């Protein structure tokens, strides 16, 4: 795996709203710690970080603009000068200029992490791959929640996470973990 100096880290929806009990049980309690490790590596090596934040348009959304819940989690606070894009749908590419910014930066690899694996992380990762960017999804720097399917069955977060990764792997992205991505990034540090 190659992580060039032009690899961009997309941190997707690492926001306080996902701490609300409404979401229920989730997998991977270490996701935020791994996100913080990736963020530290990108900053330390001078690579570009783009934060993508969800802003809900529904009146009952936990992601309402100006609410405490819409703020980024402590582990992913943007620094001055780091780009923050705001979206209102699942993909970080829809309604933003993300693609143009990546192309302008000469991005030759997109690395995705955040919340939730099967919604905004998956959708952004798919579009990144479809737009021709070599993409890496960091499996242990993402998480999701239990869901009730249309059949009324409870699907565990671990199974949803694993199936999402299986669906994306080698079709839209390479699936890797935090340690491997950091090791690869350090090998090609600026």
UniProtKB/TrEMBL annotation:
InterPro entries: Isochorismatase-like_dom, Isochorismatase-like_hydrls, Isochorismatase-like_sf. One of its GO terms (molecular function) is hydrolase activity. The keyword Hydrolase applies. It holds the Pfam family Isochorismatase. It comes from the Bacteria. Keywords: Hydrolase. Belongs to the isochorismatase family. This is Isochorismatase family protein. The lineage of its organism: Bacteria, Bacillati, Bacillota, Bacilli, Bacillales.
């Amino acid at each position: 795996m190659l992580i060039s100096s032009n690899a961009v880290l997309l941190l997707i929806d690492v926001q306080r709203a996902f701490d609300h009990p409404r979401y229920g049980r989730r997998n991977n309690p270490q996701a935020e710690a791994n996100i913080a490790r990736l963020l530290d590596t990108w900053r330390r090596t001078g690579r570009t970080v783009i934060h993508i934040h969800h802003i809900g348009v529904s009146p009952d959304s936990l992601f309402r603009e100006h609410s405490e819940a819409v703020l980024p989690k402590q582990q992913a606070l943007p620094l001055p000068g780091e780009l923050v894009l705001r979206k209102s749908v699942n993909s970080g590419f829809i309604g933003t200029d993300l693609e143009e910014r990546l192309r302008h930066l000469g991005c030759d690899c997109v690395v995705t992490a955040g919340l939730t694996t099967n919604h905004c992380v998956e959708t952004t990762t798919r579009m990144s791959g479809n737009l021709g960017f070599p993409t890496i999804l960091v499996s242990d720097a993402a998480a999701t929640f239990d869901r009730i399917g249309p059949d009324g069955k409870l699907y565990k977060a671990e199974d949803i996470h694993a199936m999402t990764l299986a669906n994306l792997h080698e079709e839209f992205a390479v699936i890797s973990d935090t340690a491997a991505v950091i090791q690869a990034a350090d090998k090609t540090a600026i």
